[in-house]
Specification:
Layout: H1 5-13, E1 35-43, E2 46-54, E3 61-65, H2 77-80, E4 89-94, H3 99-104, H4 115-133, E5 138-144, H5 145-156, E6 161-169, H6 173-190, H7 194-203, H8 212-228, H9 246-264, E7 288-293, H10 301-310, E8 316-321, H11 330-348
Parallel strand pairs: 3-4, 3-5, 5-6, 6-7, 7-8
Antiparallel strand pairs: 1-2, 2-4
Helix pairs in contact: 4-5, 6-7, 6-8
Length: 350
C-alpha cells in the first residue's frame, strides 16, 4: 500500500479547523477503476488516517467503525476481509485516539474523547468518502464500541447511509456491564470454578469506580466465551507489515491504553458510563441490521434483542450466530456477508 498523491495533497491543505474536509473532485475516473490508497485526511481539525481498497469504484462502499475505542482495524483489514474488495469498496478509519491517527498527534492525558465529538468525526469521514469516491451513500458497519458510534452516526445523519449493520451491538452501559458480570458468574458457578467465583465476588457487581475492574471481568468473559466459540484464524490478528514496525506497535499499544481510560474513566465516569442508546430514540430513518454472537457475554443478544424490538425502521433484521461470541470469527464474517448479500444489496437496487 502507498500514500497517494491525493493524500499528500490533503496533508498540504491541513491547517484550518473545519466541520468537514475540503471538497475535492472524485478520484474515480470510471466505475471500473480500482482503488487502493492510504493517508491522512483533515477531519474536524486533526489529521485522521483512512485507508480505501476496492476492485472497482462503482461498487458499494462499506465504512467500518472499529471497536475499542482504541482498536484500529486497519492493520488487520486485508487479512480479515480478503475477497470482499471484489464486491465492495472497503474503508477503514482510525478514529481519534486510535492507530495511525493517535500516532500522528498524541493527545495528552487531559484531552478527553467524547461520543459526540467522534460522532461528528464519523459523519465528516462519511461525507469525505462519498465525495472522494463519487458515491451518494455508504453502508455503515460498526462493532462493539463501533456499534455505539455507529448508532449515533446513523441517528445524526441517516441520509448519508444505505443501512446500518451493528455487530456485537452495545445498548446501555449499566445493562450490558451488569449482564456480563451476572452471566460470567453463573457460568463459573455452574462449572464449579471456585477460583473465578471468588475473584468475581471480590470484584463485586458493577458499577465500579476502579478502572481496572472492567478489564478484569473482560478476561473472565473471554475465558468462558472461548469455551463456546470457534477461534478466528490466527493470521487475522497479525498486523500487516506497514503496521508491524516497532514504532507502529508501540503507538498502537499506547493508543489502546489512552482510549481505554477515556472509555472507562478513572472513576468509572468515562464515555461508556453515559451510553444509553434507547434514550436517543428508537426510530431509525434507514434500514437497521443486528448481528449477535450467541455466546456473547459482553453485549448480550437478549439485551440487544429487547432494544431491537423497540426499533422502527424502513427495514430491519436480527441475526444470532452460533459458535460466536463478542469478538469476530469466521462465522460472524459469514453472517455479515449474508446480511450484505440478502438484506442490503436488494436495497441498493431501488
Amino acid at each position: 500500500m502507498r500514500i497517494t498523491g491525493l493524500a499528500l495533497l490533503l496533508l498540504s491543505c491541513y491547517g484550518m479547523a473545519q466541520a468537514a474536509p475540503p471538497a475535492f473532485p472524485s478520484i474515480c475516473a470510471s466505475p471500473a477503476q480500482a482503488i487502493r490508497e492510504q493517508g491522512y485526511v483533515p477531519i474536524n481539525g486533526i489529521e485522521q488516517w483512512i485507508t480505501i481498497t476496492g476492485a472497482a469504484c462503482g461498487n458499494p462502499v462499506i465504512l467500518f467503525i472499529h471497536g475499542g475505542p482504541g482498536n484500529a482495524l486497519s492493520p488487520y483489514a486485508d487479512a480479515i476481509y480478503a475477497g470482499w474488495e471484489r464486491h465492495y469498496t472497503l474503508v477503514q478509519w482510525d478514529q481519534r485516539g486510535a492507530g495511525m491517527t493517535y500516532a500522528k498527534q498524541r493527545p495528552t492525558e487531559d484531552v478527553t474523547l467524547t461520543v459526540e465529538q467522534m460522532r461528528d468525526d464519523g459523519v465528516a469521514v462519511a461525507r469525505y468518502i462519498e465525495r472522494h469516491l463519487g458515491q451518494r451513500k455508504v453502508i455503515l458497519m460498526g462493532s462493539s464500541w463501533g456499534s455505539i458510534l455507529g448508532v449515533h452516526m446513523a441517528k445524526a445523519r441517516p441520509d448519508l447511509f444505505h443501512a446500518y449493520i451493528g455487530t456485537a451491538q452495545v445498548v446501555n452501559a449499566r445493562d450490558n456491564e451488569t449482564g456480563m458480570y451476572r452471566e460470567v458468574m453463573a457460568l463459573a458457578q455452574a462449572a464449579g470454578d471456585t477460583a473465578t467465583v471468588d475473584k468475581l465476588t471480590a470484584l463485586g457487581a458493577p458499577p465500579w469506580t476502579d478502572p481496572r475492574n472492567f478489564g478484569i471481568l473482560r478476561r473472565f468473559d473471554r475465558k468462558y466465551e472461548g469455551m463456546a466459540t470457534d477461534a478466528p484464524p490466527k493470521h487475522w490478528w497479525q498486523p500487516a507489515p506497514f503496521y508491524a514496525t516497532p514504532q507502529a506497535l508501540a503507538d498502537a499499544e499506547a493508543a489502546d491504553d489512552y482510549s481505554y481510560i477515556q472509555f472507562i474513566g478513572l472513576r468509572g465516569d468515562g464515555m461508556f458510563a453515559k451510553v444509553d442508546l434507547p434514550a436517543l430514540g428508537t426510530r431509525f430513518d434507514l434500514p437497521v441490521f443486528f448481528i449477535m454472537g450467541e455466546a456473547d457475554l459482553l453485549t448480550s443478544p437478549a439485551i440487544a434483542r429487547t432494544y431491537f424490538d423497540l426499533i422502527t425502521a424502513p427495514a430491519k433484521d436480527f441475526t444470532v450466530v452460533k459458535r460466536a461470541g463478542h469478538d469476530p470469527n469466521q462465522v460472524v464474517l459469514d453472517a455479515q456477508w449474508a446480511v450484505l448479500r440478502d438484506k442490503v444489496a436488494p436495497l441498493l437496487k431501488r
